[in-house]
Amino acid sequence: MVAGPDGGDGAVMTGAGGRALVLEAMPPEIIALILDFLVPQPPEIGETHPVAYSQLMVDEPWFDFTRCRRGLHSVCRVSRRLSEMARPLLYRVVAILDERALVLLLRTLYNKPEYGLWTRYLSCHFTLSRESVIRETRQLLVTYLSTFKPAPVEGTTTTVTRDFLQLLGGYLPQMSVSEGDLDHVPQALLCFILMHVTRLETLLLQVPISDDHQEYDVLCSQVGEIAPLFESDPTAAPFQHIHTLLLQGDPELLAHFEDEDCDCEVPEVYGAQPRRYAPLFACFPKLTTLEVSSDDGVWAPVDDELRAILQGEGPPPPFLPNIRHIYLHDSFAFPGDLHYLLQNAPRLETLYMTPRRDSAFTRSPMLEDHAYPEALDVALAQHAKHLRNLDVSWENLTSFEFLVGPDGRLTALAQMTELRSLCIQMALLYGSPAAVLETPLVELLPPNLVELALEDWWWHSAELLEELPEWDAQEKVWHYQSQHLYRQSALRTLTQFARDVRTRLHHLKRVVLLCKIPWTWVLESAVPLEFHFEHVKSMFLAQGVDFSVKSDEV
Asked: Which Gene3D superfamilies has this protein been placed in (predicted)?
């Protein structure tokens, strides 16, 4: 199959006589239900492309995906009837895993454009501007371009694709493998694939994280040139159904940078640059969800727009005007960076961010001012009027507290009446453990919360994270014993919160305490995690609030 390293033939279903006809004899509704189980789940963002099919292990992310596709591919080869039922499912979720798949998928869609109508999810799991990808794509085009045959039915997409392929064919005899010759061909091939999958809903792109690889400016500009081609028939235009865009920072290069044995010069700041994809956002009219892995943390406008501001032309318009939900995984963003994100996404309803390890030690702020104008607290007060779900965290903001807000606290939360779900660190609420005694927790929270997750975390604990995996039983016991006073203080705060909760938070239904260092609360084989919280749990239950405590390490 063109979309990945699927295996060969396989049995579909056998009856008493070992014949596949048993499956065909079933009612079509039953067959459809069976085949639905073979539709693979889309791969998660941040996954590298799989190794060879035969080398995948059962618990690997791509194992089920490739096996499901192999099953559907086998069903397509049983009979015409089963093929008609299984082929739309085979093309519903498509993952492009290598250069050969890129070339052959376009060939298939060029010959049978009706296949593209079935695709709802499409992902590309290699960086199109890598030198090795460019070189391999050229070589594959020399081999396969002569086998591209257009569909018998004419249309704008087929005509434009044919013109492009003819132009490309004229270059092939003189095409060299040196750098600079048709470097943008992989991006162009993906663009034409996107033209054919007109009912696509979710798109995942693996994008560069280093200046050594060119950004996808060509892809963005090419996508922007497609809409005018369909002015006479706008209903046939592509990109009209895309609601989710996933930008996956190159996970292989990221792993290389983070490897202790990395022998290359690691950039000071690296990662995906979502701001560079603003032209792409503008081409997807129904785009509401943006998910990014390993972004570089910079959400201010690109250099040209900043230059326009300096020249007095006024601030540029938001480049995320219609985005409602943003999810950042392994992000380099600081609280001040999220100020720009909120400023450029005025309709944002969901903001989720998990930090990249040690990011606080590789960037330095321009100013150190307790009234920092681009603090996250300012952005929440001025640019987050529609925010309903907030989940952000950092491992260490020592010396960077001014990027959060006054005294390192998010004071604007208490006035955010639209917020319904909040996951927040105690350090972001109070600034320091000593400040816990000054203000009751209930007064710091949004009044209409329904769900609350409190992360038991303070910046001074950051140094323990590196040591934690190496702790032996004695060190865990010592840490538990040393935290006696802290546990008393934390439980006192939670108990008071449980007493006060209905004085202000009338809609709250669930509270979760997330413990990042489990050995603060756990004494192995003696004290379980839940032991300290039975009284707190009962007090919340009396108020109609479900309380639980969790730790990923236990």
From this structure: Ribonuclease Inhibitor (3.80.10.10)
Question: Can you give the pLDDT at residue 12?
Answer: 44
C-alpha 345/C-alpha 314 separation (Å) is 18
To the nearest 10 degrees (0 to 180), the angle between helices 185-196 and 217-224 is 40
Select from 527, 529, 444 the least CA-distant residue to 493.
Answer: 444
**pLDDT tens for each residue of 229-276:** 998 888 888 999 999 999 999 999 888 887 777 777 777 778 999 999
Compute the distance between CA of residue 409 and CA of residue 441 in angstroms, rounded to an integer: 13
Token couple for 66: 């490739």
Give first-to-last CA distance, the chain, whole Å.
Answer: 42
How many angstroms separate the CA atoms of 517 and 464, rounded?
8
Question: Is the model more confident about 364 or about 68?
Answer: 68
CA distance 525 to 480: 13
Tokens of 306: 């900043």
| pLDDT for res 5 | 40
C-alpha 457: how far from its chain's center? 24
Instruction: List pLDDT tens digits, range 333-381.
Output: 999 999 999 999 999 999 999 998 755 445 555 544 445 788 999 999 9
**Three-state secondary structure call for residue 514:** strand
For residue 111, what are the CA distances in angstroms to 114, 162, 381?
9, 11, 54
Structure-block tokens of residue 365: 């702020």
Tokens of 148: 């591209």
Total structural domains in the chain?
A: 1
Rounded Cα gap, residues 66 and 389, in angstroms: 34
Distance CA 85, CA 81 (A): 7
Task: Give every CB contact of residue 394 below 8 A, 6+ residues apart in sequence.
Answer: 334, 335, 355, 359, 360, 425
Within a domain: 154? no
Is 46 contained in some domain? Answer: yes
Residue 418 lies in a domain: no
Which residue range(s) make up the domain with 44? 1-90
CA distance 192 to 185: 11
Count of alpha carbons within 13 angstroms of residue 102, beta-carbon side: 26
